[in-house]
Every structure is written in C-alpha cells, then in structure tokens.
Design brief:
Layout lengths: L2 H4 L11 E19 L2 E18 L9 E15 L9 E2 L3 E3 L4 E8 L2 E7 L2 H13 L4 E6 L6 E10 L7
Parallel strand pairs: 3-7
Antiparallel strand pairs: 1-2, 1-8, 2-3, 3-4, 3-5, 6-7, 6-9, 8-9
C-alpha cells in the first residue's frame, strides 16, 4: 500500500444552515393521556399551520406552501406506593420528558412541510398560549440541507415581528 492510498479522504466543508421563515395561519391543540403498567403518561401537541414566505438559500418551489410546526410536551406519572400516605396507592407527581428541548427534523416536499420539537413543560405552555392568542405571528426555523426532503432541525425562533435582514 502506498502513502497515497493510505491518505484519508477529506470531508467536504459543511454547508451553511438553511432557513425558513413562515407566517402563522392557525393553531390547533390536542391532548392524549394513557394508562400503562404502573403509571400514566400524557402528551400535549400544538400544531401551528403556517405559510412559507422566505427561504435561505432561495427555494422557490417551497415559497407559498404550507408548513406545520408541531410542538410537543410529554409527562409520565408513576405509582407511588407509600403505605403512610392517605389514599394509598396513588399516582405520583408528573415528570416531564424530556427535561430539555429536543429538536427533531425538517421535512419539505412538493405539498408543503413539517418540523417538530419536544419542549420542556413551562416553555411549551407559555408558547402555546402566545400562539393561540395570535401574539406570535412569525416562525423562523433553521435546518441542515435536506437530503431526500429531510434535514435535521437546528433552531426555531418564534416572534411577533419578522426578523431583520442581515
């Protein structure tokens, strides 16, 4: 094996993040609760339907299409078997899952798109209230260049006014 054959291939340079700017059209919420084994879990989902108004780099095939931003929050309640507790056994205090935000992916297709994130409980309920009231009207999402229509979501910004041009 020669030295030339042993050289590692260099990774191509990282492409800049892509950015999508959307205006909020409507907000819907759903709530799911389920009993399982020795506990209960729940999940709240807020779907924000938006219109794509700008993209960087420019992707004209997606402009004007709808995109849904799904925000989720989950909790899990375990049994607490404390014989000294009145009303024993009872369901314990809810534990939020996850404790930190968790960004999922951006999916873009010919019919529109979808991106989603799990949020901590306090952030989820505060955002949900501001979105339902109509106070937050713009969503800016950054993501890694999509491969086959799907890319990793890297940030979501909710605002009352559109972001300023750099």
């Amino acid at each position: 094996m020669t030295k030339k054959e042993r050289r590692r291939k260099r990774k191509p340079p990282l492409e800049p993040e892509h950015t999508l700017l959307a205006t909020v059209k409507s907000v819907t919420m759903s709530y799911y609760v389920r009993k399982h084994g020795d506990g209960v879990s729940d999940e709240a989902i807020t779907d924000v339907l938006c219109d794509i108004v700008a993209m960087t780099p420019n992707m004209p095939q997606h402009l004007g299409k709808e995109v849904t931003c799904s925000l989720m929050c989950s909790r899990e309640y375990r049994r607490v078997d404390d014989p000294d507790e009145e009303g024993w056994p009872r369901v314990g205090k809810g534990q939020t899952i996850p404790e930190t935000p968790f960004l999922l992916s951006m999916r873009l297709g010919k019919d529109g798109g979808l991106f989603s994130a799990y949020l901590p409980e306090a952030a989820y309920w505060a955002l949900q209230a501001h979105l339902k009231s109509g106070r937050l009207t713009f969503i800016e999402a950054s993501f890694i260049k999509p491969r086959h229509g799907i890319g990793d979501l890297t940030s979501i910004n909710f605002s009352e006014t559109p972001p300023e041009e750099p």
